[in-house]
């Protein structure tokens, strides 16, 4: 069992911190909708900013334990990370639009469905971005 955990530690820690990132995303999304009565797309973008910033630091330091050797490499990681996340933000916007606007679904249910899809896509991108050489 210990070998399995050691072999899959990046996946296990990504699931843990991905879960926390999902809580940041869902929690802030709900707050923006309930407390501030914002449109679901605006709430999604604001929650994206908070959750992606949180995800960058947890992925870099705890999941992939990345230690860039230069400021150039650090900037490249930041740019790559946020670029990849912008791609999945576009996917999120489309998923929410289809689920909520076209299918008239519940905004919280579709945000949860969206988070599962995004979690998988973001793991694949982060694994490449923070790849240890």
UniProtKB/TrEMBL annotation:
Q: Would you name any one GO CC term?
A: plasma membrane
Source domain of life: Bacteria
Q: Where in the cell is it found?
A: Membrane
- Tell me how this protein sits in the membrane: Multi-pass membrane protein
Q: InterPro entries per the record?
A: GtrA_CellWall_Glycosyl, GtrA_DPMS_TM
The question of whether Transmembrane is a record keyword is answered with: yes
**Keywords recorded for this protein, A-Z:** Membrane, Transmembrane, Transmembrane helix
Main localization of the protein described in the UniProt heading: membrane
Choose any GO biological process term that the UniProt entry carries and state it.
Answer: polysaccharide biosynthetic process
Stored Pfam families? GtrA_DPMS_TM
**Family membership noted in the UniProt record:** Belongs to the GtrA family.
What name is this protein filed under?
Answer: Uncharacterized protein
Q: Which organism is it from?
A: Weissella cibaria
